[in-house]
Amino acid sequence: MTQIWHSLxxxxxxxxxxxxxILTWAFLILLFLTFPxxxxxxxxxxxxxxxxxxxxxxxxxxxxIVVGYAGLLDLGYAAFFxxxxxxTGILTxxxxxxxxxxxxxxxxxxxxxxxxxxxxxxxxxxxxxxxLAIVTLAFGEIVPVVIRNLxxxxxxxxxWQLLSDFNLTNGVQxxxxxxxxxxxxxxxxxxxxxxxxxxxxxxxxxxxxNVRLQNSRLGRAWMALREDETAADCMGVDPIRTKLLAFAIxxxxxxxxxxxxxxxxxxxxxxxxxxxxxVMILCMVILGGMGNIKGVVIGGMxxxxxxxxxxxxxxxxxRSVGExxxxxxxxxxxxxxxxxxxxxxxxxxxxxxxxxxxxxxxVRRAELHAAEEEAPRAAEKG
Amino acid sequence: xxxxxxxxIRKQFGGLAALSDLDLNIxxxxxxxxxxxxxxxxTTFFNMVSGxxxxxxxxxxxxxxxxxxxxxxxxxxxxxxxxxxxxxxFSNMTALENVLVGMNCRLKxxxxxxxxxxxxxxxxxxxxxERAQELLAYVxxxxxxxxxxxxxxxxxxxxxxxxxxxxATHPKLMLLDEPTAGMNPQETxxxxxxxxxxxxxxxxxxLLIEHDMKVVMxxxxxxxxxxxxxxxxxxxxxxxxxxxxxxxxxxxKGVAAQIRRTKQKVAAETGSQEDGTI
Lengths: 382, 278
Known about the structure:
The complex is a heterodimer of chains A (382) and B (278). Chain A is mostly helical. Chain A has helices at 2-14, 17-42, 47-69, 78-92, 102-124, 130-149, 192-214, 217-227, 229-234, 239-265, 275-288, 293-325, 328-331, 339-353, 362-381; strands at residues 153-157, 160-166, 182-183, 186-187. With 278 residues, chain B is an alpha/beta fold. In chain B, strands 6-7-8-3-9-10 form a six-stranded mixed beta sheet, sandwiched between helices. In chain B, strand 9 and strand 10 (230-235) form a beta hairpin. In chain B, helix 3 runs parallel beside helix 6, helix 5 packs across helix 6 and helix 10 (244-251) packs across helix 11. The radius of gyration of chain B is 21 Å and the shape is globular. The mean pLDDT of chain B is 89. Classes of the chains: A mainly alpha (382), B alpha/beta (278). The interface between A and B is large, with 31 and 42 residues.
């Protein structure tokens, strides 16, 4: 099997490294740029789904900074997504009479999300590992509850009132409609294609930012903190500043995603940002390989492909089999109800068999290989 | 003025005084050693100087500036580098990246500079990489060893990498916590040579904790002996070796007395002048 694969890919591997890289990139860019066209030709109708997947991939890349680079386990990341989305909603919801331009609002969402990143970061600076995870988990729960209750805000002391029964978030019903972006007279509406291209641009920028941060002074400081906080501190890395930057920059990415998502969905409500979403994003990061951009992107897409395509198609298949064989349990099965079971199972399998993720970077692979060679020698040394 | 000056510093862990009212001066350009039995307070002293612990009382001055109680990264920025007793490298980063982290506080590029990749940031980055490569070569990790993950390096080289990483912080004073622990005799000789070179060529003052007496006696200009958190002796290797208190601390009162008697007997028999030395 591997031999067949080897001979099939031989011509490809004969191309020099540099050119092969350019070819791969050109192919990927072409694929993504022409995707809506291909979708139309084959009549798949999945552009909208792919757009949603890209939103989640951006979230995963943001979480990758916090969890993958800086090693701070954040279980409440969806809260920042909610904050980004609600900033957009509040600034563009007609009853507020603000209705700001989307292109301004998206930056406001980024700044507000980053600000809340620092707010949640500050009290957790002294915490490590599990304790940090618990605090972020609580934060992830607090945010939707607060949003649900901000439908009636009253600020005042005694008879003096600054705000009285002010409806900021419209409670459980949520904000509807949310302002849409427009560009040179063109307004984004129900056609998913313009949204697709917009999220593609945002995703490209987020990936670029991830790559540049990874190979920078700050990226190295994050990784040093992840490896050994005390040693990093002794080497001149300021842990407080560095961690806060991780929280702020990680959160700012979800600000982009939140603003986009709110505008595209045209309606946001607290139920969208539950704990499940935080777990899903974390699963995407872990599946692909923490701290590895390519892994997070591919892993995230795979998980979504599984969720949106494999589960529904398998359900259809299982039902037709059930009908043919007259097994009523199989004929009425809905595997998409089992999604969290499958996610959980995937995580267990990944953690046991391949803790480095499905797509560890080339360096990581080399490292693991070297570790295997090193093991017997270390054993000899005792 | 001494480069490092500790004035009556004290560290209390609950009811236990790990260090009590220690005075210690390290002159510029020296290789100084801190020795003593296990639990004497040597590493506690290092941790206080480098900022991991805050002294319960007393002052620590680096070039006349108070550093006691400052956060470790502030102390590092003021010119103090250190290594650790149990190697604490960033194991899942390459050797080169480890050294680059050491340079962190000497680099200026900000997060937005990294995002925009301005020319000054790129130049600084290129220069830093070049310098890191030089440092690696300096400690004996030349060729392509810089691309190896720290955890995959052999033990002796890991110790050397820790020194390179500490050098990258551009220190005036370097604290080495048992730099030759666990090394074979050949590696030990190499490490001693490296420490000497660092002092002679890079003009960095060195304070080390060491249990290997061959190393201590071989390279130190000055030795301080601690026992139960207090200084019991100080001086050149010759003076310390001759100090009966030191022998007592290391070997116990009975053995020390026995050695003294034997030496005296031998001296009386041979008429030799030297008495009391080991």
